[in-house]
Design goal:
- By secondary structure, the protein is of the alpha/beta class.
- Helices cover about 45% and strands about 15% of the residues.
- The chain contains 15 helices and 13 strands.
- The strands form two sheets. It has a seven-stranded mixed β-sheet, sandwiched between helices. The protein has a six-stranded parallel β-sheet with strand order 9-8-7-10-11-12, with helices on both faces.
- It is globular.
- The mean pLDDT is about 90.
């Protein structure tokens, strides 16, 4: 196994690729620590006009045993479907991009891309990787006859103590004893931001009475949300630009709860990170973490204004002890199911099978 050399391919290693970049980066680290010779290529640094050829040339130069492609609608899946002879097996991880809500956005462009190259890339894959059973079902509605491996994302556990971190970005605005409900991630329509803000306005007095703030920290809208909340203020609600490294750790460590009322997800890294910091969570069904609600680590928070208002009121009514217990439940869930060591081991087994189909299929593969 240590001699196996997979090559990860995605669009970007930066925030413009959302949670994909974080997931690939952490998976790569875990695989390298396990002794696997894993590498990662991104396509955004290459010219739009030569990306497919550049990517093919790099693959030929690196000579990996297999390819693991992350995300859709980009040059790397066009290469897989092209006439280039790659001479090696590959698998594809859609990362939620075949979910019904995601497909409904720009449907004609995606219909064209699917028929021009994506369908061929999927149907000639040795295996497709789904993050959860719900995503596997979405994939099956588009692809038949290709095995699907169900393996979740993992998350790195926090190492730094709160006192070793800088002050959070909101430290000059929010009193130290008040509580922060954190939204962390991409500012995108699918994340349920609009119904969340409307619901927050409807319970703003209760938020004030119980000492809660709603804080958005993220990227992806060219500063529009931050500008909107500056020019048209909403009580106890602010937005800040994306943070990384120790500043991101500080944001998570200094929050009191986390919310993601998304319309569509694969398996959101931000929610897993929040639970790793022992934060009680408010999550929609589309986050594909039903065990978080069933183990009392999260409150259901679907992206409808009336439902979100009730979810927020439920949060406000929790005692400090209740929130602490929810956080513990979430942290236990991370340790049991979403640690990278176990997940990396599953991928290693999957890669060995993808490369050599005479081996027994792992038990997490659906046919």
């Amino acid at each position: 196994m240590a001699n196996l050399s997979p090559l990860h391919i995605s669009y970007s290693a930066g925030s413009c690729d959302g949670g994909i970049a974080t997931a690939v980066s952490q998976l790569l680290d875990a695989q390298q620590q396990s002794g696997l010779f894993a590498r990662w290529l991104t396509t955004e640094q290459n010219s739009v006009f030569t990306r497919e050829k550049d990517l093919t040339d790099l693959i030929d130069k690196l000579q990996p045993d297999l390819l693991h492609c992350h995300g859709l609608w980009r040059a790397h899946t066009r290469v897989l479907a092209s006439s280039y002879n790659l001479n090696r097996p590959y698998l594809v991880s859609p990362h939620g991009m075949l979910d019904p809500w995601a497909i409904s956005r720009s449907p004609w462009k995606k219909w064209a891309a699917w028929n021009l190259w994506e369908s061929k890339a999927f149907h000639t894959a040795r295996c497709i990787h789904a993050l959860c059973d719900e995503e596997a079902e979405a994939i099956k509605s588009h692809v038949s006859g290709v095995p699907i491996a169900v393996i979740p994302n993992g998350v790195e556990l926090p190492a730094a103590k709160r006192e070793d971190l800088p002050d959070p970005v909101w430290s000059k605005e929010i009193p130290a004893n008040d509580k922060v409900l954190l939204f962390l991630g991409r500012f995108h329509t699918k994340k349920g931001i609009e119904p969340l803000i409307t619901a927050w306005q409807s319970v703003s007095q209760e938020a004030a009475n119980s000492g809660w703030w709603l804080i958005f920290v993220g990227y992806g809208d060219d500063g529009k949300l931050e500008s909107q909340l500056t020019n048209f203020p909403i009580a106890r609600c602010s937005a800040y630009p994306a943070v990384f490294g120790t500043e991101k750790k500080s944001v998570l460590a200094n929050s009191s709860a986390f919310i993601l009322p998304s319309f569509s997800e694969g398996l959101p890294m931000a929610a897993l990170e929040a639970m790793s910091y022992r934060l009680p969570c408010l999550l929609s069904k589309a986050c594909n973490l039903p065990e978080a609600t069933s183990t009392s680590a999260a409150i259901s928070a679907d992206p409808e204004v009336s439902k979100l208002a009730k979810s927020l009121q439920e949060l406000f009514q929790l005692s400090s002890q209740d929130r602490t217990q929810m956080g513990r439940n979430g942290f236990k869930l991370i340790l049991d199911k979403y640690n990278w060591q176990n997940i990396s081991s599953k991928f290693n087994r999957l890669y060995a099978w993808v490369q050599d189909d005479s081996l027994p299929a792992p038990d997490f593969i659906h046919f």
